[in-house]
Structures are given as structure tokens and as C-alpha cells.
User: What shape does this take?
Amino acid sequence: MNLFKKIFSIYNEQTHKIICILGFKVKIKNYRQDIQLLEEHISKINNLNYARIKKILPANSIKLIELHIVDHCNLNCKGCHHFAPLVNESYLSLSEFKSDLTRLYELTNGDIEIFNILGGEPLLHPQCIEFLETAREIFPNSKIRLVTNGILLPDQPDIFYEKCGKNNIHIQPTNYELDINWNIVEEKCKKYGVYFQFYLNNTTMYKDSIDLSASQDAKDSYLNCQLGWSEYFYLDHGKIYHCSKTAYMRFFSDFFKQNIVIPETDYIDIYKVNNVQEIFDFMTRPPKFCSHCVKTGPLMRYERQLSKKEISEWIKI
Assistant: This one.
């Protein structure tokens, strides 16, 4: 059996030894034989294989947590990965947000590098600035980014920018090439010392298809996925998920009346774990939902378009 297939395919659930060769941590079982093979092939490890290795190794810190404060949006993008076009108005409560972040701080002792506060469109929440202030209060040393489509930024009052500056909030809009007066936004950010940078330039979208029959190999889909990483986390109502699809699949399932259920094994409840290591270990295991994700062949790209709320925007055709 090919060495990389043995390492990357995760065929069994047995405990693997962890070794370190040339700076790479690798989980292996038959370690004497595999070490020899690994030494022979280590020079052939490319970026893809290294990324796959990272997928099955527990992280030692949380690089990024993304969470919604609203699930709906004022854009209507075809094939949105967060299913925002399918969602009715949905607002997170500030009390739940504070409780979840406080629990995360207890588990991590504040060792979280980045928070992405987004949606949906986070500026639709009437308490958006209070969420940002609360995040900064609980995590004084983390980078806190407001990820927005930017439509509502020019209309925000000066006090919004003043508080963002005071709390070191990064404003990072996705550039969809909309008719937005970015000069106003940049001037206000400069005036109040707010970090401003485009988060992404999304003039094109890509279709990452859902297989309604769940006929994909979950482990292969997991290893080939560009959304789920062992150090990137998605928090939704006190639960940690591998990716936005598992976190928000309920919106797709409810809208199109599909019986796609995310099993309890595909998320971990931050109020039921004893320590952060349990979360790290969970993130190395492929979710069962990955059998719904088509990860073979090239991604289909298209210019950003309006959603017609048709199931074909999200499923395998």
C-alpha cells in the first residue's frame, strides 16, 4: 500500500504513535517500517501532502474561530457557502455570545489568535458594536475582525468607528466590487485609528457541491477539503464544527425539505468538554457529513450572481 495513502486515508480508529522527522509530526502505526519508508519519500512531500498531514494532527492552539452574530444577509449570492439566501432574519443574543466566549476563554486561557465576527451580514445586527466590544473585553489579546460585505459601512456613525478604534477591531470587508464609497470608510478608519483591509476579493464564486445521496468517501472528502482545518474552528450556539457547511446545513435542509441531519459526532459542545485538548482531538476526525461533500475534480467557478434559491446552486448535478 502506498505510504501516503496509509497515512492520509485514516483507515482505522486505533491510536497511532506520533513521531517527528525533519520537522514533520506524523501519526503512524507500524512505526519502524513506516519510518524507513518515510525517510525514503520525505523529499517527495509537497504542499498538498503537508496540508493533509496537518489535517490529522491535533493542533496545539486555535488559529481562527468564525461565528455568526446574524445568519441572514443583505446580499443574495448564488451558492453562498453559509446558505444566507435561504435564511429568515436570525439574530444571536448578546448574552449567549458572552457566555460562549467566556467558556472559550476558560478552556483556552485566552489563547485564540483570531476571531472572525461575521454572518450573514454582521452589520445587520443592531448591537453589532456591543458584540465587538464584548469580544475584546473577554479576549484582550486576540485579533478581532469584523468581516462584512461593506454595504452598511459608509452609513455607520462616527461613534461606531471610534469604538472600533478604541477596541482595536479590524474592519475587513470582502470586496464584491459593489457600488460602495470606500473613500468615506477609509477616511473614518484613518480618523479613528481603525485597521482597514479587504478580507477577500470575491468577484468570482465557486460551487462546492453537496451530494444528497451521501455517496462520497467521507475521509477522502475531508482530506481534500479546503474549508476544514484542525486549527480553524466554526462556533455556532455553543458547538464547534469543522466547517461552515456542517454548522449551517440546517438552513439548506429546512428550506429544501431535505432530511440531512448533522449527527452529534460531527460537532463538539464546548460546555461538555473538560479541556481544550478534547476539541483539538475532535478536529482531526473526519465528520460523517463529509460523505455529502463532492471533492473530486476541479471546482466550478462563475461570476458572482444573484441567487434564485434553487437547489441546483448547491447540489451535485
User: Anything to note?
Assistant: The radius of gyration is 21 Å.
